[in-house]
Each structure stands twice: as structure tokens, then as C-alpha cells.
Design brief:
698 residues; alpha/beta; DNA polymerase, domain 1; OB fold (Dihydrolipoamide Acetyltransferase, E2P); 4 domains; six-stranded parallel sheet; 38% helix
């Protein structure tokens, strides 16, 4: 189909049923004001919202069994007649029991519902129902406990079919949602299809209307799979359009080119007090090549914990200064900014490249001095926190922006810093949080990717062990051995203070008291958590780094960037309450010196899944493999640092489906070749307005 035909088809579709789709759910029979408020908790306000609300899983109750063949302890579905229905009170638990006698040609059984007196009016003796639920054995025979039921018919909606189960909230059940979506089924054709016909045809995809029919009213799991593939493709296609548009705009803009001086690069590397890893050499070469191009570099440097990202950033910064330009290096915390400032000063010792620090706790006079210095044409590196975003900071020759842990800054904050240059500066984002490649291609699709996985040769090995809570004293005994050797210890707790809602979860304050009076009584302990001021946090960390503290009891504030080479033990209380990637980040705080280090994961829960997750951390040194497992277990979270109408834009796409992701990105690029302004297909143009703000990093 041509672009002109697409435009005509989209215009026709867009004029159909717009008002009914925007209709408030209050106007739907059976939805009162209180129910409408409950639906709003699920993000459902209009007919469109409800039709686009997707199931989270399905229950298959198609297979019918006879009452004589029921299987105890499992789900059973049977077609039965109701013989009698009665209600009585249970004297022990003070519950209302609604009991129905069931029969079919093979025998009899009972069904029992708890505290649902109204069912006595709904269940009619002599009529046939499909009943589905868990069956237990009682003195009188087989009993269905709280089963679902529905009149037997040719059009089953709740049982006797593949039944969609939706995300629920208090007062809103999947049964209610199935009923209301069923009432609105005839309005599905009015929904405009975001995917152009050409894309659907080339990629063999269902149209939106058929896909929604299949997810809400499926006849087979094969239908569900095909429908979900189509809906997932749409999400990936739209994100692919945004990042490809951003990439094309960037490539069309002029920027500051930093010549690749090979001789200088060799001299700078030769003066380092250590040898670069092969990965660092490759990534540095990629960055130098990017800097020399006429358009702005836009690169994401992923480095597993301890892989040496800061050295690569220093080499990029020194090449930029060598070319006569300035560098802004932003970190999310004062602690990390001060650490980078000290590291860069040490690595650049003897170079004619000033490294200035700018953080919020500095005096106004000191900040003004840095601002005045930035306004000069002197090649320099300014390392700072959010203070770099202040309007008075205007580097006159900004050639490179480096942002460490860039996901901790919002889109707007990154944009402010990148717009301080006369021309768009080169951009290097760094993260120590490993991101699966499939997620990186969507979350940071306009950034070229560089990955560091090797640990420098001088770094010590980290041994990880899972310890059940009942035997967790073993971890503290091992820590005492390391303390006796002159090393230091981290102890991480999930919460700051005890909580009734989290009974049994170790808090920082309780652990501090216990350790100072028990296992570590003769050692110097410090406490660190989010309620301390920035200055207090810096003071505690400086004491720990200077080894005037032996043990640091802390929350997750030490997740990233803390560099204390003498620390060789990491004890994580209630480790099963943290994500896999976060545990890997904690582990990265030790093993930064040459000595062998130890990470003890204290398991609070006896849950088998928790055991499997923690064992995966213990068995896997690669943060990228753990990040992939974490993505499967915990989901992908928000994209680009902003939320799209209060929800993730990926409701159904599996970001580990590399084949579908690649197909969607190829289709997005192909469509932009023909329709760069996205004007040809009106529903797509309208949909992209929601994505544009979320993902546009230019």
C-alpha cells in the first residue's frame, strides 16, 4: 500500500467511533461511581482503556471430568446439575457457608462457598452449570472449595474455556472485567490501528481488532500467542521509531570534532601506572574514533563492576582537553563526584589539565570561582553533581559531556547539560548496572554501545556464599578473620529502622547495636543511610575510606561507586529482598584490591525461588547474565527515566525476544525511510506523541 493510500485509510478509521471510545466508564451499565473509582486505580477511565486492558495470564478449564473421576488436591472442571442449595453458619469460625449439592450421570459431590450468602439466590436447583475449582476429600465425599461457576451454554465466558485473568484491585475481579469487556466487544472495531497496513502485511501481523478479540476471547493458546506477538510488535515498533528518529536527527547536526591524535593517545596510555585490559583498549579506540566524527558522539559505556570505566572516561576527557576543549563530568552523588575528582587528579598527575570540583556543599565563593574558570577558554575537566546544571555554569568550549550512572538522572537533566555547548557536545554515558543487550537497544537505542566485562588483572577474586539466616553467625566469624588481618567489612541491611510490616527484617539501626555489642565489639563501626545529610554521608564514607572505621553498617546507598580497596567482606542481610542486579552491585564494592574477598548472602526466606535466585548470584560472576535473569524475574521497569501516562510502555513485549525486537526495529527504520515525519498514518502519528517525550534524549 502506498503512503497516500495509508493516509486515506487512516483518515477513514480515525473518524469512526471516537466519541464512544472516549466514553467515561460511569456510563456503562453496572459501573457506579464507587466501581469507577476502583477501576481508575487500574488506570481504567474510558471504554478505550478497558478494551486495551490486557490479561496477565490464562486458566484453561476446557477439559471436563465426571464427578466420579474427580482428582483430589487439584483443579477440576465438571458439567453438573444443582440438586439443592442451602446456607448455614459455621459455629467454629463464624463463617456463612453456602452449600450446593451437585450431580451428573456418574455421581454426586458438594460445592462450598465462604461468606457469599448471595449465591443462594443465584444458584438454581435443576439447572446445569459448569463448575471449576480445587477439589478436596471430606467425610461426605468430594467437595469443590470456592469454585467458579457459570450456566452451561454454547458461549462460556468464565469457566469451561480458556479464561483470561487480568491484573486486579480491591473490589475489581477478573470475572467483573471479563463481563464488562464482553459487553463492549462490539466496540473493538472502532479502535484505530496504530500499525500501518504495509507493516502488518510485510511482517505477517494481525490487525489490532483481531488481536484484541483473541487476547480477550481466545479459542486456543495458538491464537493467544499470535495476538500477543502482534501487540508486542507494536510496542517495539513505536519505540524503534522514536530512537531511530533521534539517531537520524543527531547524525544530521554539526558538532565539535575532536581529532584522534594517535601519538598522544599512545603516550597517555604509556604513562598509566598499569596496563589496560584488552576491553579497555578496544572501547577507548571506539570512543576516539567517534570523537573525531563531524556529528556528536552518543555512546553508552556499560562496564561490569570493577571493569575500569573511569580510566576509559579519563582517556576520552584528556583527548578532548588536548584538542583545546572542555569536559563536564557529572556524577549522581557528592561522594561519587569527589571520588572521580580524586581519581582523575591522580591519573592526570603531571599533565597540564586542571580538574575542578563542583558540588552542592561547596561555599558560594568556591562555586563562583569554578563558574568563572569554566567561562574561560582553558581546557579543563569539571567534575560535579547536579550543581553542573546551574545556569551560571557555562563552559565556553564544551566538547564532551560524561555522565556516570546516567540512569539516575532524568531526561531533562541530561538535556540541560548537553545544551550548554555552543555546538552539541559529544556525549558519553556510563553505567555500572549491566543491561541486557535487548533492553539496551530499546532503552538507549540512540546510543552506540560499548561493553567492558574484563576485570583488571590486579583485582582480587570475590567468593560468594549463600547462608541461611539460622546459621548467619558463620558470616560474622569469617568477617572477624578478615578484620584481624587489617581489612574492612560492609554490612548491608534493607531498611533503616525496625518495622511492624517487615517483622524479622534486619534494620541498620538494630544491626549496628547488635554488632557493636557482639561480634564486632572491639572494632570501630560506622552507620550510613539515606536519612543522613549529604555532608554526613561524605564524612562517614571518608572515615571508612581512610580506615578510621573498620565496619560500615549501611543501606543500599553504597550500591554504586564506592571504592575502598581494603574492604574484603560484604555481608548482605535479607539478601532475598534485593534484585539480582542490585546484589551484584553490592558485591562489586569488595574485590577492588588485590586480596581475595568474600560476599555472604544471608537468606531470610525459606522460599525455594529465593534460594534459586541467590544461588544464581553465587554461581555467576557476570553482571550481564544476572541482569538478564533479573529482567525475566522483575520486569524491565521504566524506560528513559520517565513514565508514560503512569505506566510502562512495555505492557506485553518480552525484551528478551531478540528476533522480534530486531524485526520491529528494521520495520521502524524502513517506515521512516518513506515517512520521516510520521504523517502518512494518522493513528501512528497520534500514538507517537506519547512516546516522543519519554524517549527523545536530544
Amino acid at each position: 500500500m502506498s503512503v497516500r493510500e495509508e493516509r486515506m485509510a487512516a483518515g477513514s478509521a480515525a473518524t469512526q467511533g471516537v466519541d464512544m471510545l472516549a466514553l467515561d466508564l460511569l456510563h456503562i451499565p453496572g459501573i457506579g461511581r464507587e466501581t469507577a473509582l476502583r477501576l481508575q486505580r487500574l488506570g481504567l477511565s474510558t471504554v478505550r482503556d478497558l478494551l486495551l486492558y490486557l490479561p496477565r495470564r490464562y486458566e484453561d478449564t476446557r477439559e471436563l471430568t465426571t464427578l466420579a473421576s474427580l482428582t483430589y488436591g487439584s483443579l477440576n472442571t465438571a458439567s453438573v446439575q444443582i440438586r439443592t442449595v442451602s446456607t448455614r453458619e459455621s459455629p467454629r469460625r463464624r463463617m456463612v457457608l453456602t452449600v450446593a449439592e451437585l450431580e451428573d450421570a456418574s455421581g454426586t459431590a458438594e460445592a462450598v462457598w465462604f461468606n457469599q450468602r448471595y449465591l443462594e439466590r443465584q444458584l438454581r436447583p435443576g439447572e446445569t452449570y459448569i463448575v471449576s475449582g480445587k477439589v478436596e476429600r471430606s467425610k461426605g465425599g468430594a467437595v469443590f472449595r470456592n469454585p467458579q461457576f457459570e450456566h452451561a451454554s454454547d458461549m462460556q465466558q468464565h469457566v469451561g474455556r480458556i479464561t483470561p485473568v487480568y491484573p486486579e484491585t480491591e473490589g475489581i475481579t477478573s470475572k467483573f472485567l471479563r463481563t464488562k469487556i464482553g459487553q463492549l466487544k462490539s466496540w473493538i472495531p472502532a479502535l484505530p490501528d496504530v500499525l500501518p497496513v504495509r507493516i502488518r502485511t510485510e511482517c505477517a501481523l494481525l490487525d489490532l481488532q483481531e488481536a484484541l478479540r483473541r487476547v480477550h476471547f481466545p479459542e486456543s493458546f495458538a491464537e493467544i500467542e499470535e495476538a500477543r506477538r502482534r501487540l508486542a510488535f507494536e510496542e517495539l515498533f513505536c519505540v524503534g521509531l522514536v530512537v531511530e528518529q533521534a539517531r537520524r536527527r543527531r547524525l544530521a547536526e554539526s558538532s565539535i570534532a575532536i581529532p584522534y591524535d594517535v601519538d598522544y593517545a599512545r603516550e597517555r596510555v604509556a604513562r598509566l601506572p598499569f596496563h589496560l585490559t584488552d576491553g579497555q583498549r578496544v572501547v577507548t579506540h571506539e570512543i576516539f574514533q567517534d570523537l573525531a566524527k563531524p556529528h556528536a558522539m552518543n555512546r553508552l559505556l556499560q562496564g561490569d563492576v570493577g571493569s575500569g570505566k573511569t580510566v576509559v572516561a579519563m582517556l576520552a576527557a584528556s583527548m578532548t582537553c588536548h584538542a583545546g576543549h572542555q569536559v563536564a563530568f557529572m556524577a549522581p552523588t557528592e561522594l561519587l563526584a569527589r571520588q572521580h575528582h580524586a581519581t582523575l587528579n591522580a591519573l592526570l598527575e603531571g599533565e597540564d589539565i586542571p580538574v575542578r570540583l563542583l558540588v552542592g556543599s561547596m561555599t558560594e565563593g568556591a562555586k563562583r570561582e569554578v563558574a568563572d574558570f569554566a567561562a574561560t577558554a582553558i581546557p579543563t575537566i569539571i567534575v560535579g553533581t547536579h550543581a553542573l546544571l546551574e545556569e551560571r555554569i557555562q563552559p565556553s568550549r564544551l566538547g564532551l559531556v560524561i555522565i556516570d550512572e546516567q540512569h539516575r538522572f532524568g531526561v531533562e537533566q541530561r538535556q540541560i547539560l548537553r545544551k550548554k555547548g555552543v555546538l552539541p557536545p559529544n556525549f558519553l554515558a556510563m553505567t555500572a548496572t549491566p543491561i541486557p543487550r535487548s533492553l539496551a537497544l530499546t532503552k538507549y537505542g540512540d546510543l552506540d554501545l560499548s561493553v567492558l566485562t574484563e576485570r583488571p588483572a590486579m583485582r582480587g577474586k570475590v567468593v560468594t556464599e549463600v547462608i541461611r539466616g539460622s546459621t548467619h553467625d558463620a558470616a560474622f566469624l569469617a568477617a572477624r578473620e578478615q578484620l584481624a588481618l587489617g581489612h574492612q567489612v560492609f554490612v548491608i541491611c534493607p531498611i533503616i529502622e525496625e518495622s511492624e510490616d517487615l517483622d524479622g527484617v534486619m534494620s541498620v539501626t538494630t544491626e549496628m547495636e547488635r554488632l557493636s555489642q557482639g561480634p564486632f565489639a572491639q572494632y570501630r563501626l560506622g552507620i550510613l543511610h539515606g536519612r543522613l545529610s549529604g555532608r554526613e554521608k561524605d564524612e562517614v564514607m571518608e572515615q571508612f575510606r581512610a580506615h578510621t572505621l573498620d565496619v560500615l553498617v549501611t543501606t543500599s546507598v553504597v550500591e554504586v561507586g564506592v571504592d575502598v580497596p581494603n574492604a574484603t567482606v560484604m555481608i548482605i542481610e535479607s539478601a532475598d529482598r534485593f534484585g539480582l542486579a542490585q546484589l551484584h552491585q553490592f558485591r562489586g564494592r569488595v574485590g577492588r584490591g588485590s586480596a581475595t574477598s568474600y560476599c555472604y548472602l544471608i537468606q531470610e526466606s525459606a522460599d525455594e525461588l529465593a534460594t534459586q535466585r541467590l544461588q544464581a548470584v553465587a554461581a555467576t560472576e557476570s553482571g550481564f547474565l544476572l541482569a538478564e535473569q533479573d529482567l525475566r524475574l522483575r520486569g524491565h521497569g521504566e524506560i528513559g527515566g520517565l513514565r508514560q501516562h503512569g505506566d510502562s510502555m512495555f505492557r506485553i513485549a518480552d525484551l528478551l525476544d531478540a528476533a522480534l525486537l530486531q524485526e520491529a526495529q528494521h520495520a521502524a527504520s524502513s517506515w521512516l525511510d518513506d515517512d520521516p515525519e510520521l504523517r502518512a498514518h494518522a493513528p501512528l502519528h497520534e500514538a507517537m506523541r506519547a512516546y516522543q517525550y519519554v524517549l527523545d534524549l536530544d
